[in-house]
Known about the structure:
By secondary structure, the chain is mainly α.
Amino acid sequence: xxxxxxEKKNRKAPRLLAELYESxxxxxxxxxxxxxxxxxxxxxxxxxxxxxxxxxxxxKGELGxxxxxxxxxxxxxxxxxxxxxxxxxxxxxVARRTGQxxxxxxxxxxxxxxxxxxxxxxxxxxxxxxxxxxxxxxxVDKAWEWAADIFDRDRDPRGICAVSCMLLGLPGPx
Length: 174
């Protein structure tokens, strides 16, 4: 019944089927191939949660899929266009790690930080500015702006500490 509903363009049914096949809970046995296929159908139909999940699957190489950061970026980008701010953050991280243009990583990380008030996105941006990974090159003032933004917004001193450590060349978890 659920499969029939999904095939008749019920918007929520494909995602539900994907989750059921992924978990193996309920009446459906666990089946990674069908889980990925139903997530793809759901994402194509506009389910941002499924697009985000596909990004995770390809970023981590889960459910029998090979790790593929290009596919991960593509699915995260689709999810972010559907309004998922967490996916925008992942877009920025994956863009940065795959060596895509710095402006792409900067765009998604900045959007994520501003919309979600994300400590992690702000810290990624500060690190990009310290290391000169932006189109404008190294910009310590911009790094400090992101650290100050984290502090002003969240009252979290970790951004200022992290940028200080980066500038001093000290190792850290970032």
